[in-house]
């Protein structure tokens, strides 16, 4: 058994259903991959993401937690870069909506 969720930010009951708590993959697969470019590390990270997507019933809660608390590593099947891209896209969308609302009002 491995369990990687050792972060300080409080988590809900969902964490008891985390698939990363019940598999044989090295817990480090979910952490620390952003600073290591080796192919093996990427391969292991991809395995971790695969577990998130295929085996975890609380992926949404996990991703929400990571976005809320700006967590590091793989959460909800995404890595830091993917979450940053997602947040940037959301900010752009909100900006466009704001511009359109101002045009419609003015
Ligand atoms: S989505 Fe991935 S990182 Fe999050 S709890 Fe599930 S297995 Fe763990």
Key structural traits:
51% helix; 106 residues; mainly alpha; binds iron/sulfur cluster; elongated
Structure explained in plain terms:
With 106 residues, the protein is mostly helical. The chain has one domain (13-105). It is 51% helix and 0% strand. The chain is built from three helices and no strands. It has helices at 39-55, 59-69, 80-105. It binds iron/sulfur cluster. Iron/sulfur cluster binds next to α1 and α2.
Give the terminus-to-terminus CA distance: 59 Å
Shape descriptor: elongated
Number of strands: 0
Mean pLDDT: 84
How many domains? The number is 1
Q: How would a textbook summarize the main sheet?
A: none
Q: Topology as H/E string?
A: HHH
> Any low-confidence stretches, pLDDT <50, length ≥5?
none
How many helical elements? 3
The proportion of residues forming helix, as a percent range, comes to 40-55%
Short description:
This protein has 106 residues and is mainly alpha-helical.
Write the layout of secondary structure elements.
Blueprint: H1 39-55, H2 59-69, H3 80-105
The structure holds iron/sulfur cluster.
Iron/sulfur cluster is lined by residues 18-20, 30, 51-52, 56, 58-59, 62, 74-77.
């Amino acid at each position: 058994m491995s369990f990687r969720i050792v972060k300080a930010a409080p988590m809900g009951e969902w964490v008891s259903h985390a698939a990363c708590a019940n598999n044989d993959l090295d817990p480090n697969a979910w952490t620390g991959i952003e600073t290591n470019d080796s192919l093996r590390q990427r391969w292991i990270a991809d395995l971790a993401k695969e577990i998130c997507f295929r085996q975890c019933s609380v992926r949404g809660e996990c991703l929400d937690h990571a976005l809320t608390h700006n967590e590091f590593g793989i959460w909800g099947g995404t890595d830091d870069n993917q979450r940053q891209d997602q947040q940037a896209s959301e900010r752009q969308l909100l900006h466009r909506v704001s511009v359109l609302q101002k045009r419609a009002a003015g």
